[in-house]
Design brief:
By secondary structure, this protein is an alpha/beta fold. It has a single domain, classed as FAD/NAD(P)-binding domain. Helices cover 24% and strands 20% of the residues. The protein contains 14 helices and 22 strands. The strands form 6 sheets. It has a 6-stranded antiparallel sheet with strand order 8-15-16-17-14-20. A 5-stranded parallel sheet has the order 9-3-2-13-22. A hairpin with a 2-residue loop joins strand 6 and strand 7. Helix 3 runs parallel beside helix 10 and helix 3 runs parallel beside helix 14. The longest helix is centred in the last third of the chain and has 18 residues. It is globular. It starts with 8 loop residues before the first helix and ends in a 6-residue tail after the last helix. Its EC number is 1.1.3.6, 5.3.3.1. Pathway: Steroid metabolism; cholesterol degradation. InterPro entries: Cholesterol_Oxidase (IPR052542), FAD/NAD-bd_sf (IPR036188), GMC_OxRdtase_N (IPR000172), GMC_OxRtase_C (IPR007867), TAT_signal (IPR006311). Keywords: Cholesterol metabolism, FAD, Flavoprotein, Isomerase, Lipid metabolism, Oxidoreductase, Steroid metabolism, Sterol metabolism. It comes from Gordonia amarae NBRC 15530.
């Protein structure tokens, strides 16, 4: 790594203000994998162990956490495999990296980092984010117990019925999910909007200015529900904790706690049953079907640098894939291409979408946003009247800077017919992402950006995706009604399930996806517990 350079103060300031990204996006949008950056270690003997389990779940985000909890509550023992580590937060902790001071904890060790084209001196680590570079798209994939809930801003939005029905299969039944499954998720995550006492404080001036501008533009405005105990943010204002919420520095994980992420909700309750074990730093490298119909899961157990210290071959009659859209789909595509699983549906790898993600930097020196911006998110504009053109945009805090930059972050997402695919590259021996160059141009250029420009008017608006097309909301690849049934059962593959973003139809109906992924998983587990335990599980 002799050519690596540390992140200088100048580079960091440029990164935060010029990258036009939200929190971690300001960093990871520039951390692009490149080949040949990791030198091969000398050959050494690595032991292989074999285990058998009743249920194996790959991934510990929303789909994996919900699967583990609901099966355990039904009396089923479950092993959860998580490639990342645990990230335990609490008042004044330093567990998570700060967005204003990036370090090795940001990056998953298989992401080779560059910053504005130059390697950065981050040692290999089981960090929070894997950057997957494909054709015309950078997909950001989380790692760690809790999955994406560790590092997402937390916007917990339920789609409107008309928009949901336009993009999801009718048989999914929004009315039922509205009565049962969305409220169940909301209760578990204890969602709440930011209290006025917080919003009216000096650190939240930028949120109030955004709201004023949205109202002036005649666009809808609402507080955004978040899985946060806002008393933690109020305690920060009172000087009882170091800032994490109130200075925008929690975009890569909230050190003070108070965020109801999957690790402290679903996973914690699952482990409390005594029937769930979470195996950390376990990376699944491939899956296969045995002649007797059981599933083989090949795993590398690593240390915190990503070095393999043990290989495991797990056998199970029930395998639930919940590793996120990109990595679940990669496992299926590889298994299909290599013949490890025969007769997988032809739709595997197709229907992959970005949820119409767009990230902007809004620069308005005259508005005096302040060098410190409270976060994570207070207000958004839900433009959902037309189900075929629905979109949302929000304001998110920038990490703190030493001087006033006059910049803040705006994030948009919306419905889109643009789809890519994940295919097997035989030359590389791996599954790769392919995205059409103008995949989401229609929703982004015709609707999201014009609406945002009504808010920003003559101010400078920088489009981060124009420089580095990226998504934090990868969806699809094992789509419902194509590869799986609505409950995530892979067609023609007894005992194989997909219960994560890969099951979604490439969009989450103009919302960020977490709440719908969770509600779909809750709905699926109701059916699986009722009908599959005892016969398949």
């Amino acid at each position: 790594m002799s050519s690596a350079v540390p992140v200088s103060a100048t580079s960091r300031r440029t990164l935060l203000t010029g990258a036009a990204a939200v929190g971690a996006g300001a960093v990871a949008a520039q951390l692009i994998p490149h080949a040949g950056s990791v030198s091969a270690a000398p050959a050494r003997r690595i032991r292989t162990t074999r285990e058998e389990h009743r249920v194996v779940v790959v991934g510990s985000g929303f789909g994996g956490g919900i699967s583990a909890l609901r099966l355990a509550q039904a009396g089923v023992d479950v092993l959860v495999l998580e490639r990342g580590r645990r990230w335990k937060a609490g008042p004044n902790s330093d567990t998570f990296p700060r967005a204003s001071a990036p370090d090795k904890r940001i990056l998953w060790h298989q992401s080779a980092p560059t910053l504005f084209g130059k390697p950065v001196a981050f040692d290999p680590y089981v960090g929070l984010l894997e950057t997957v570079m494909g054709d015309n798209m950078l997909a950001v994939c989380p790692a760690g117990v809790g999955g994406g809930s560790l590092i997402y801003q937390g916007m917990t939005l339920q789609p409107a019925e008309a928009v949901f029905n336009e993009w999801f299969p009718d048989r999914l039944d929004w009315q039922l999910m509205n009565r049962v499954h969305y409220p169940r998720v909301a209760r578990m995550l204890k969602i709440a909007v930011a209290p006025d006492k917080l919003v009216n404080s000096s650190n939240y001036k930028v949120a109030r200015e955004f709201a004023r501008r949205v109202r002036r533009a005649g666009l809808p405005l609402a507080k955004i529900p978040m899985p946060i105990d806002w008393n933690y943010a109020l305690a920060e204002l009172d000087g009882k904790m170091r800032p994490s919420y109130t200075n925008g520095d929690g975009a890569l994980g909230v050190n003070n706690g108070g965020k109801h992420s999957v690790d402290v909700t679903y996973i914690a309750r699952a482990e409390a049953t005594g029937r769930v074990r979470v195996a950390i730093q376990h990376t699944v490298t491939s899956i296969a079907r045995r002649a007797d119909g059981k599933w083989t899961v090949n795993v590398d157990r690593t240390d915190e640098t990503g070095r393999t210290v043990e290989r495991k071959v797990l056998t199970t009659p029930t395998l639930i894939l919940a590793a996120g859209s990109v990595n679940t789909t990669k496992l299926l595509v590889k298994a299909k291409a290599t013949g490890a699983i025969s007769n997988l549906p032809d739709g595997v790898g197709h229907g992959w979408g970005t949820n119409g993600d767009r990230i902007y930097s809004w620069v308005s020196p005259a508005s005096d946003f302040g060098p410190v911006q409270g976060g994570p998110v207070v207000y958004g504009s839900k433009n959902w009247d037309d189900p075929k053109k629905a979109f949302t945009f929000i304001q998110a805090s920038m990490p703190p800077t030493a001087v006033e930059t006059g910049a803040t972050t705006l994030v948009g997402f919306g419905v889109s017919k643009g789809r890519g695919r994940i295919v097997f590259d035989s030359a590389k021996g791996e599954a790769v992402l392919r995205w059409p160059r103008e995949g989401d141009a229609a929703i982004q250029k015709r609707y999201i950006e014009p609406a945002i420009r009504k808010v920003t008017r003559s101010d400078l608006l920088l489009d981060n995706n124009a420089a580095v097309p990226n998504t934090w909301h990868a969806l699809g690849g094992a789509n419902m009604d194509v590869v799986c049934d609505l409950e995530g059962r892979v067609k023609g593959q007894k005992g194989l399930y997909v219960l994560d973003g890969a099951l979604m139809p490439g969009t989450s109906a103009a919302c960020n996806p977490s709440m719908t992924i969770a509600a779909v998983a809750e709905r699926a587990l109701d059916d699986i517990v009722a009908n599959d335990i005892g016969s398949i599980i």
